[in-house]
Amino acid sequence: MKLKDNEMTNRVSPVESAYNARKTAIQIGFWIAILTAVFTAVAFVIAIATPPISGPFCQSGCIAYPYTNVVSHVPHDYIWLYPAIFIAPLFLILAVCIHYYAPSGKKIFGQIGLSFAVIYAAVVTTDYYIQLTVIQPSLLRGEKDGLALFLQYNPHGIFIALEDLGYLMMSIAFFFVARIFLGDERIERVLRWLFTTGSLLAIGLYIVLSAIYGNNLEYRFEVMIITINWMVLIVAGISLSILFKRTLQQTASV
Q: Which helix (H) or strand (E) holds 11?
């Protein structure tokens, strides 16, 4: 009887379990939101300071196919990838935290958003990791055979295609995550507007640019969607950290 009484005492109710999970998600989410904003801002600044040397936005000193005469640009042109590769796992963890933050009736949107975040993280992490650990050392060692299709300098190569796919998945994740923030608080309205506008703008640009340029899309869309999504992540990271901190303070005062 004593054993059964102890089991009853130690048993956590489903409501309490959900409450604890949400609290833990908010605590983790606060720091992850800050880190997401920081890493995205750093990657953004470095990327802006790395002008293109091929494709439609190249201004001077442009290179042409097979894009392999770039040893002098290594590692300079690859520095932005180091902070950028961390954005993927940070956003994935943030999506998990947002899912647990959501009220029970909205968790379906968090789950869908999380699913697209997983696709984004898998695609972009693979894409960037290959550039850093395969392409970069291959260029430095003069092992250039077959690299043209994979180089970030190729405006219609695999690197750009995977970025387009990955960040489109992030944009769709934004759209569903926005459905969670339906409260009347100003910070929730900001997040709802930010995620919704960012997602619709990115998807709309893809449709418009694809219609205009067709097979000559090159990296035009890639530059635009990264700009949109990274700006969303910076502002959303700051906003979410404020929201999570405020929620924790309200919880502690109850």
A: none
